[in-house]
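User: Sequence in, structure out. Go.
Assistant: Echoing your sequence, followed by the structure tokens.
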Amino acid sequence: MTTFEPEHRTLRLLCASAAGMVAFPSAAVVARDPTIAVAAALVGGGIGYAASSVVVDYAADGVSG
């Protein structure tokens, strides 16, 4: 059976996307300003991308062990 290794960049982008998708509607509801909502989504996506190293480490450990 073939083993599948996840692409680490894909996992990072998925985490960033998820964080941005949560930040945008949250900021849109709170601030009611589209500019602030977009900025919050970008900041949230950046934080999600940076924090995704935990997800990548977990995925790498799951594949190897």
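User: And one key feature?
Assistant: Helices lie at 8-31, 34-51, 53-64.
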